[in-house]
Write the structure tokens for this entry.
Amino acid sequence: MTQRLWAIIPAAGRGSRFASERPKQYMPLAGRTVIEHSASALLAEPQISAVLFALHPSDEQFSSLPLSHHPRVRAVVGGSERADSVEMALLTLRGEASDADWVLVHDAARPCLTSADLSALIQATLSQQRGGLLAAPIVDTVKRAGQANEVEETLDRSGLWRALTPQVFRYGELVSSLRYCREHRLTVTDEASAIEHCGGSVQLVAGSAANIKVTYPEDLALAEFYLQAQSREGVR
């Protein structure tokens, strides 16, 4: 049986930490919006059957973007939390996606994903037949802080990685894991954590540290720097 690959971009958040009236995924960046850059590598990958954007119910901006008319783009209603949006998007694929299909989830505000990193993740997934995520080893010294922000200890950073996106898992496994976590009120910070809660195996695929998430206004300048560098080097 042929395994298909789907993609979900949860984009229902309002970006409270970004301190802007406009959600961060719609902020201008290098001639386009953040979300358009975030979707670029996914839409350039022919193995992906469709890219589902899980949007806030009152979203009025997505439909004005050229990518909303792409033949492989679908807009669906998202939820109040990231996990809710992903689960709701997954349910819209019920009857079309099989349990053995793969679902790739990418942040709406992570605009510097390269096609090379995406290809590496897909290749690792299909060759190992195991879900996983792009990640980058932590290179900074890591401190654990106390309540008054005093240093309690310095952590051993060996073996520690920063979780990036995309993250990719089988459709059936991801649906059941997110449902289990919701029913048991378990904290889900990313798709891998839901799989981990249910005892699933997750592989780490080394990705570029330039695959940053736009969280604060100053991140836009850094993202633009990386995008310009990628354009000059022809790695987009």
Q: What stands out?
A: The first strand starts at residue 5 and ends at 11. The chain has a mean pLDDT of 94.
